[in-house]
């Protein structure tokens, strides 16, 4: 089977022409490049995210459909962090010759599952052979009202720091799967204990916060925004450095999911370490003026979403600190997952 036959097998019939036309596609998969109509009064928002075998996923941590779903979700999350709407995706997929095509189809099934959930058109991409391992790269093109993108560089002294949802579950789920060591083809949700299912879901099927990002963008009161891909400490550092401010995290205000607390206690580990340094939660962390926080939390509750006030933005010192129970202040290292 040649490259074009493989592409047809992976993409044909996945998204209807009517859906693609409704989303602005003029020419999609099948030509040298895709063509789409731009929305008047909007700016393009573009991002790319890559997942590589043995770096981002292993046979004992991710099923094939999860690989595709998470690759799309990670890129969509970057769009959420800008307060933008994801529109189009380009997929670059590399795999060794001899790879069973059913495996690649399953990866594409996961890609489309996530894309369809967020109404993203998969408009094209590239497929190549690789010497070893599978690599999936997802480029997302989104849009946001002109001049209204949410940046990490605009936190202001006096702001509160907020986070959506719970953090740390994905890293705990990864550790659980690594310790369990069962090949991905031999486990599913039913083989994972109920106590650990939330951790595994958080790692394998993350939930990018598009709705939360849109709420924050439309409110007009959100200052800085970032998605949590490398851990809360790392993302807070990114905001602090980009904005030239200091950030104090208040330990007792950082919410801890019950499932994470139980897992950490069972392993005699600190749940806060998963939250600060784990990553791949794809929740949002950002800042706003303190006087707007209560009203924003009410809007989130109405939407069935969570917004936690977890810290403050300071003028000095620059960097990130943890204010522990009892008032002790600890400087947090700028660390999380780092490829290099």
From TrEMBL:
Primary gene name: thiL
Gene Ontology molecular function: any one: thiamine-phosphate kinase activity
Binding site for Mg(2+) 1: 49, 126
Residues annotated for ATP binding in this entry: 108, 125-126, 152, 229
Residues annotated as binding Mg(2+) 5: 230
Species annotation: Paenibacillus konkukensis
Protein name: Thiamine-monophosphate kinase
UniProt domain PurM-like N-terminal: residue ranges: 30-144
InterPro entries per the UniProt record, alphabetical: PurM-like_C_dom (IPR010918), PurM-like_C_sf (IPR036676), PurM-like_N (IPR016188), PurM-like_N_sf (IPR036921), ThiL-like (IPR006283)
Binding positions for substrate per the UniProt entry: 56, 280, 337
Similarity section: Belongs to the thiamine-monophosphate kinase family.
Residues that coordinate or bind Mg(2+) 2: 49, 78
Listed pathway(s): Cofactor biosynthesis; thiamine diphosphate biosynthesis; thiamine diphosphate from thiamine phosphate: step 1/1
CDD domains recorded: ThiL
């Amino acid at each position: 089977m040649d490259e074009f036959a493989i592409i047809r097998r992976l993409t044909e019939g996945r998204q209807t022409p009517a859906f693609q036309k409704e989303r602005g596609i003029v020419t999609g998969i099948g030509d040298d490049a895709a063509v789409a109509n731009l929305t008047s009064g909007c700016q393009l928002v573009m991002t790319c995210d890559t997942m590589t075998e043995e770096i981002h996923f292993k046979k004992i941590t991710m099923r094939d459909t999860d690989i595709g779903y998470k690759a799309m979700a990670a890129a969509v999350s970057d769009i959420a962090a800008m307060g933008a709407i994801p529109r189009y995706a380009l997929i670059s997929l590399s795999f060794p010759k001899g790879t069973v095509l059913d495996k690649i189809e399953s990866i594409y099934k996961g890609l489309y599952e996530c894309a369809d959930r967020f109404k993203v058109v998969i408009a094209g991409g590239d497929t190549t052979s690789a010497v070893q391992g599978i690599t999936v790269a997802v480029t997302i093109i989104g849009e946001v009202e002109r001049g209204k993108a949410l940046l990490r560089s605009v936190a202001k002294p006096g702001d509160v720091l907020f986070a959506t949802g719970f953090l740390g579950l994905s890293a705990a789920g990864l550790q659980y799967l690594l310790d369990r060591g069962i090949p991905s083809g031999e486990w599913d949700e039913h083989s994972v204990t109920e106590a650990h299912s939330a951790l595994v879901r958080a790692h394998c099927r993350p939930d990018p916060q598009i709705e939360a990002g849109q709420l924050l963008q439309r409110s007009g009161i959100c200052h800085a925004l970032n998605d949590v891909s490398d851990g809360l400490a790392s993302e807070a550092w990114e905001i602090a450095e980009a904005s030239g401010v200091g950030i104090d995290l208040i330990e007792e205000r950082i919410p801890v999911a019950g499932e994470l607390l139980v897992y950490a206690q069972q392993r005699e580990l600190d749940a806060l370490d998963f939250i600060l340094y784990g990553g791949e939660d794809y929740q949002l962390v950002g800042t706003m003026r303190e006087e707007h926080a209560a009203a924003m939390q009410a809007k989130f509750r109405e939407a069935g979403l969570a917004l936690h006030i977890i810290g403050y933005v300071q003028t000095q010192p620059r960097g990130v600190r943890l204010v522990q129970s009892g008032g002790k202040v600890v400087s947090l290292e700028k660390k999380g997952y780092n490829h290099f």
